[in-house]
Amino acid sequence: MINATTQMSLRDAMYAMSLAKAVPDAELLDEFARRYPNHANALTEFAIELAIDSLMHRNDEEDVPVDTDTISPIVSRVMSQFENQLYERRQARAVTPPARAATTSVANPFVDLDRQEFRRLVSQLDVSNVFLSKLRDRNIDPVTIPRGYCRHLAEETDEDFEAMSAHLYAAQESVAAGRQLYKAEGKPKTVPRQTFEQAVRSSGLTEAQQRRLLSFRD
User: Fold this and answer.
1) DSSP conformation class of 144
2) Which of 35, 51, 68, 173, by CA, is between 20 and 30 Å from 206?
3) How many CB atoms lie under 10 A from the CB of residue 198?
4) What CA–CA distance (Å, rounded) separates 159 from 144?
5) In this structure, are residues 42 and 10 in contact, taking their beta carbons and an 8 Å threshold?
């Protein structure tokens, strides 16, 4: 029997995968299988289901009747494609140095803010410089960030919810401060990710600010 903690972790992994791409491909599945090895099989099945649903939905939009006799071949074809592509990716990774492996770039809605714009956004969001820096640098574990707060961030920064989610869920990286020049914060660097609550508790926020942030829900 799967306990509640495992169910929550799997649910969050599926949610993150569905946000990353409308139709997952082998590259995305491979990334999530490595990030959540305990759920690799379930995530593979989920990715295949999303791919099949996309094919069925496309048929609906094109007004093509769904023939139940064709569903099984479609499932087999999608599974075969995933298996072949996953095999090719893993073989390539085995002979490719990690430092030269390609990475997918995701837009960072905070990185181009200058110091004045950054401080203005800090005030607008009613947070601290440290907390906003953690969001900018992806130092918060995305699966612990409430959807309600992600939606709030998107609204306050005039970003799409999907774009903001993609930023938060993207791979952590050392983010160049650009024009911001935060002397107090030092040079940005990759650090271990905190949970949302840990980030709230350790960012110099007032008690009222902490209560407000922790009140956001999925």
Assistant:
1) G
2) 173
3) 14
4) 20
5) yes
Neighbouring C-beta atoms of residue 162, cutoff 10 Å = 13
Q: Would you state the structure tokens that stand for residue 210, as one six-digit string? A: 């902490």
pTM of the model: 0.51
Residue 54 tokens read as 């996309």
pLDDT of 144 higher than 50: yes
pLDDT confidence bin for 36, thresholds 50/70/90: confident
Mean pLDDT, range 9-23, rounded to an integer: 78
Name which of 12, 5, 7, 35 is nearest 142 in CA terms: 12
Token pair listed for 158: 């005039």
Question: Residue 29's pLDDT is what?
Answer: 76
For residue 121 the two structure tokens come to: 């956004």
| Long-range own/partner contacts, residues 15-21 (CB < 8 A, 24 or more apart) | 15/143, 16/142, 16/143, 16/169, 17/43, 17/46, 17/47, 17/50, 18/50, 19/162, 19/165, 19/166, 19/169, 20/166, 20/169
Collect all residues with Cβ–Cβ distance below 8 Å to 58 and sequence separation of at least 6: none
Cα distance between residue 203 and residue 186, in whole Å: 15
The 8-class DSSP code of residue 62 comes to T
The C-alpha atoms of residue 65 and residue 84 are separated, in whole angstroms, by 29
39: which residues sit within 8 A by CB, 6+ positions away? Answer: 9, 10, 13
